[in-house]
Design brief:
96 residues; mainly alpha
Length: 96
Amino acid sequence: MVCARAGVPGLIPPLVAVVVGLHFLPLAAVCEQPRLRVPAALLVGAGPAGVAVWLTDSPDTTVRLVVGLLCALSLWGMAIWTVTATASATRQGVRE
């Protein structure tokens, strides 16, 4: 609401990325999954990257594209990492 009323809707995606990224930090502690700090850092980093693009007077669509791609890549990377780690652990368990 603040960004929309201030006339800077282009800042909404970077701020959302930071807020979502920060949510991963308590999840990492509560779920005892330190690897969740990686997407936290990447998502929080996507926010300033989006702001940097916005500061260059790029269109809002470009800001959304940059933030969206960085967030998507980090989350997909985390998903792949998790699946491969789980599959590896499962295979090791079968061998024993």
